[in-house]
Amino acid sequence: MENGTGKKKGTELAVYVEAILFASAKPVAFPQLKKQLEVSDETLVAAVTDIRRRFNTERSGIHLLEQDEKIQLVTNPALGEVVGAFLKKEASGPLTRPALETLAVIAYRGPVTKPEIEQVRGVNCSLILRHLMVRGLVEEREDPARLQRVYTVSPDSLREFGVRRVDELPEFAAYHQDKAVTELMARTLSSEEAI
Amino acid sequence: MKLWYPQGHRAVSFRHNETSFPDGFCMSFEVTLEQYAGPLHLLLDLIERKRLPITEVSLARVTDEYLSYVDAHEPPPEELADFLVVAARLMLIKSHEILPREELLEEGSVATLAAQLELYKLFVRAADILDARQQSPERSFVRAQADALKPEGFVFPEGLTALSLAGAFGSLLKHLAPFFRLQQAAVERIVTVKERLREIHDALLTRARLTFRDLIGQGRSKVDIVVSFLALLELVKQKTVRAVQSAHFGEIEVKRVE
Q1: Which of A5, A65, A104, B22 can pair with B127 through a Cys bridge, CB separation 3.0 to 4.6 Å?
Q2: How far is B256 from chain A (nearest CA, A)?
Q3: pTM of the model
């Protein structure tokens, strides 16, 4: 497939992706890149891995941020204090407890549906979800497999939490894949009908 | 685990004879202005304040405090229904302790509330983690302007036709349908204990005695019945009415106390 132009292969492709990311500044979606560069999923993923390996080190001021098939070049989170001071960027105000809880469910279990979030929190979350979307911390999209809307945290959200991928959040594996959590979620969801 | 209190208004007012414990946990206090993040937050706080494990038995033990909290601090209207649903489930759990077990009790939902609370507790911790991450100076920035992608003038979006526009509107309506249903359901569910209390009281002014079945009337929802029952219990406590039930699951007769 990537023979289309015959020039973008392996690590060479990574250079193109890198240049596009630098020029775009905004998060760039995988489908956009695949179409533009005429490459397959696997080739693109290999290129992204290559960029991540080269950039995401202590010695680099620029890091690669990845979230939900979108990638973006951002500053090294460890330098946040100095860079923020230079840009005169104030840290954004703290989130309310309901907003934090909702964001936690989305970050650790995303993509999740609204009923799943509400099952964990025990309250209707429409207003909080809208608020989080307005603040740009949460994104909504259609899940073709589930025929429902699902929610994920935004790349901006990850920047705010100082991580480059959602799985870098503390204890991500425990919350995301842990059998007990999955079982609890399934159990509470299925027995909801009984009430 | 640390439970959170809203910044600015530390919601716990201490009485004069308060006793402070080394870990900052204070015993004799009264909750006054607490703004809970939801019914589960309130429930978890009540259980942890007593240092109880999350079990059916613990839930039954905090039922009264839960109900009196909801009664004293009316939750915001949009959350009232959620608070009442949890109240109903607590009453069910408590009824398991008092009443003989019969098949009409739903086992599933009892196991579920403790499980749901356990799950909620996990995410309270996750929220604490995110809170700490957000407060930490570690964060990334992006280039300020995305000059390269600025579109020039108006670009007619690809694939925009009258048909796709109609399709988009159709699917929007489809998405809104459950929302409207939900809103209606919420409105139906919101009848406060206080309102029902007044209704029962008024009913008893015209008739000296009636049965609980009369009070519930026809076609009320399960939450409604629970609310009616709560109101009845409250009236009994106030010694405004007397309730007599001659057999388990028998008719409850309500009489006015002269």
Answers
A1: A104
A2: 33
A3: 0.65
Nearest CA in chain B to A182: B119
Contact B244, B253 (CB under 8 A): yes
Contact present, A54 and A17 (Cβ < 8 Å):
no
CB nearest B108 (choices: A87, A160, A194)? A194
Per domain, the residue ranges of chain B are 12-115, 193-256
Which of A51-60, B81-90, B132-141, B219-228 has the lowest average pLDDT?
B219-228
Confirm whether the ipTM is greater than 0.85. Answer: no
pLDDT at B161: 84
Confidence of residue B101 (pLDDT cuts 50, 70, 90): low
Dump pLDDT digits (tens) for A129-187. 999 999 999 999 998 888 889 999 999 999 999 999 999 999 898 888 877 778 777 76
Are A160 and B123 an interchain contact pair (Cβ–Cβ within 8 Å)? no
Q: In this structure, what are the phi and psi dihedrals at residue B148, rounded to the nearest 5 degrees?
A: -60, -25
Domains of chain A (ranges; CATH) run 2-86 (1.10.10.10), 97-194 (1.10.10.10)
B23 or B151, higher pLDDT: B151
Interchain CB distance below 8 Å, A74 and B119 = no
The letter for the amino acid at A90 is E
- Give counts: helices (H), strands (E), chain B: 8, 5
CATH number of B193-256: 1.10.10.580
Of B82, B126, B141, Cβ closest to residue A108: B126
